[in-house]
Amino acid sequence: MPEVLTMPPVNVLAEPATADTGFLGTPPILGNNVISDALDILAGLVRIAAERADAKFQEMKKRADYARQCTALAAKVQSVISDFQGKDPGSTIKLDQKIIDEFRRLSIPIDGKGIDRWMEERNIGPDSPATLDKWNRIHNRAQGTPLPDGEKMEFFLWVKEKGEKEKFADRGHYEQLKAAADAIGQQGTDQNAQDNLLIQKIVQLFNNLIAMISQLQIMLTEMCRAIINGMK
What we know:
Radius of gyration: 34 Å
Distance between the termini: 48 Å
Number of strands: 0
Largest sheet: none
Shape: rod-shaped
Strand content: under 5%
Low-confidence stretches: 4-32, 164-170
Helix content: 55-70%
């Protein structure tokens, strides 16, 4: 439901005019402070609406900025993965690190956690025990026993990098990272949809304000007409 501003009731009979306090001969039905009170109410409504609208705008701006970051992350991760497609299969070993770098650069949490904590809980990533254990296992088996075909490329790359295995990510984790990035991107899309609804509420708020101002203008016009008629 749209937010609607309500105007406190004005009792025009609350302060009947007297010979000493009457406003330029205002008839008794008009209090000497009625017009001033009405103007104060009008100014108050405008101020309240402006304050609420500004608060809504600041909230919407923050949400929109975060939504853009979410969608940008998902797009960048997809771009990083696309760049690796069709290349040497061994190059996918470093793919995780490139995706992780994007998460860190934008500082976007996953399920309320930073990327490093998120990976730690799942035992994935370049520095995870599972990854380091795999590299140690490959290295140990390479000392005297044949390696399965699926592990030869990884070991050769490890040797080629001269011990920089801690920079590598285990094969296949990029799929989990991409799924997380896609979920975050969807959050950004949903956020944009919510922001559009918020904009509609702000517009409705001002429409309600304009309608109230119009009613007050009619009220003031009638008061002024009564004053003029009383002065004749």
